[in-house]
């Protein structure tokens, strides 16, 4: 049946967000975005390897690509290897029967033969179909700690893109865009207030947006500076007497 496949575990989307290509601020990563869109649509067969620091949008793009492929009636799967301790390498078996497969956090299994060997065999099986594999990692193929030489070399065979980080203004534009998708309005004043009080990497910004959304819904209030101050002071829920979230 066409659609999005989740090998043994659900796709880890947070809150009400649906990660799409439209929500990704491409900026200097436009070529990578274009190639991913082509692969998700079925008009390209070359493998894609994305790498870059945390917060550059690697996981966002993989989620968006799988969602786009599924929306086009293609069978897609995303395997989050950062959760490999909860998974079994056997989940990589038969993925070549799908139309589109994304492997996130490849570096999480570097140096683990139990994962590297099945990943190598999946690469070869997908190559024969031919259908694209999309990989994401923090390091380049050449700089990877993958210990299986044949797998390490294959990861760099096709399209390799280093994702450039967003500048601060672009990060807050992305935050505003995601807030609008949730039906939230964030004024320039509130954005300025937040920028001086919370970490400004993408993961932290989106985590705080999640908390502000929960607090706003719970209290029935708009995102004014007094209310945002209250949420920040109380650790994220916006409820009097609540315990701060672990950070």
Summarize this structure as a short list of keywords or feature phrases.
2 domains; Helicase, Ruva Protein, domain 3; alpha/beta; 247 residues; 40% helix; disordered C terminus
Structure description:
The chain folds into 2 domains: 3-162, 3-Layer(aba) Sandwich (Rossmann fold), CATH 3.40.50; 168-233, Helicase, Ruva Protein, domain 3 (Orthogonal Bundle), CATH 1.10.8. Helix content is 40%, strand content 11%. The model is unreliable at 4-16 and 237-247 (pLDDT under 50). A 6-stranded parallel β-sheet has the order 1-3-4-5-2-6, covered by helices on one side. The radius of gyration is 20 Å and the shape is elongated. The chain has 247 residues and is of the alpha/beta class.
């Amino acid at each position: 049946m066409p659609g999005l496949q989740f090998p043994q575990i659900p796709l880890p989307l947070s809150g009400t967000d649906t990660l799409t290509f439209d929500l990704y601020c491409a900026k200097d990563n436009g070529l990578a975005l274009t190639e991913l869109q082509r692969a998700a649509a079925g008009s390209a067969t070359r493998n894609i390897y994305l790498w870059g620091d945390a917060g550059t949008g690697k996981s966002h793009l993989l989620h968006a690509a799988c969602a786009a492929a599924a929306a086009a009636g293609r069978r897609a799967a995303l395997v989050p290897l950062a959760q490999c301790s909860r998974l079994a390498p056997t989940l990589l078996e038969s993925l070549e029967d799908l139309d589109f497969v994304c492997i996130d956090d490849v570096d999480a299994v570097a140096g683990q033969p139990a994962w590297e060997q099945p990943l190598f065999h999946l690469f070869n099986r997908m190559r024969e179909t031919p259908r694209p594999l999309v990989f994401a990692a923090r390091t380049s193929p050449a700089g990877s700690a993958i210990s299986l030489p044949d797998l390490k070399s294959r990861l760099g065979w096709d399209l390799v893109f280093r994702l450039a980080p967003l500048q601060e203004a672009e990060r807050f534009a992305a935050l505003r865009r995601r807030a609008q998708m949730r039906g939230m309005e964030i004024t320039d004043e509130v954005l300025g207030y937040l920028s001086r009080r919370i970490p400004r990497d993408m993961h932290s910004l989106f985590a705080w947006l999640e908390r502000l959304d929960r607090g706003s819904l719970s209290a029935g209030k708009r995102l004014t500076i007094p209310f945002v101050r209250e949420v920040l002071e109380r650790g994220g829920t916006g409820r009097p007497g609540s315990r701060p979230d672990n950070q």
